[in-house]
Amino acid sequence: MRLEKCWFCSSTVYPGHGIQFVRNDAKIFRFCRSKCHKNFKMKRNPRKVKWTKAYRRLHGKDMTQDTTFEFERKRNRPERYDRNLAENTLKAIKKIVKVRADRESKHILNRMKGNKSKERKRDAKELEQSIHMVKAPSALQKDPSHTLPKVPVKVSQHSEEDRMKE
Amino acid sequence: MGGKCPHRKVKKRRYSHKQFRRDKFQIKGDDAVYDELKKTTGPDLKPKPPSPFDEDLPGMGQFYCLHCDRYFANLTVRDEHFKTKKHRKRLKIMAGPAPHTQLDADLAGGMGMPDNGPKLMSI
Known about the structure:
The structure holds two protein chains of two kinds.
Chain A: E1 4-5, E2 12-13, E3 19-22, E4 28-31, H1 34-41, H2 53-58, H3 83-111, H4 115-129, H5 137-142, H6 159-165
Antiparallel strand pairs in A: 1-2, 3-4
Chain B: H1 10-14, H2 18-26, H3 30-40, E1 63-65, E2 70-72, H4 75-82, H5 85-95, H6 102-108
């Protein structure tokens, strides 16, 4: 049983799923679902479509360089069956999957590192700008504890003259 | 609204125009064109063999645009085509990185390079 990868989104295509297109130069294109097939027919480039793995890897969203990627491969010369080897492999698969998941989550955490301070700033700004959505302005006037303290600012008084000029 | 014929939608009607058919089905895929370009205009440039005469193609198949995979009736038409926006866009795409292939998809999906086993024959 060979698990292929979708041409468009790089997800695994299990036997009996998806659709396969063979171009008249004998190139094979496999698709995991009609979504990917349709996108291919529209001649979209998977590197420019944001939900595909190709895009995510190209733009550093996912982990790219890792030793765990070396295990899953297309093997064009099959291994001779060996009971012990098969047993060990089955044991190793569980471990490898776990290691890979851990590394991937770590990668994402690393990627999101600078975000917290940004988020705080954004939240503070939103609170300042739209506090009236939570509390009516009239209520704020009565109870000034929810607004920012007022800072006296000097304003030059020449509005009368300006109006005369106009 | 719609058109003259209620059961022939605009999208279907488009396929009766050669221009639209070419967009959809008749043109070579990006990667095929890219490979062809690599072969003919690579670093080890070979002199181009004269294209054979073909009665079925426009201009006996003598005026060909490699990037757009199109035949033209004569030289002037082809030169005019070289100036079009479509052609220039195509040039830009072909000058860029190699088009997406199944290998790229496999690598992005978390697979390693294909394993062809040990070499059986030593040269």
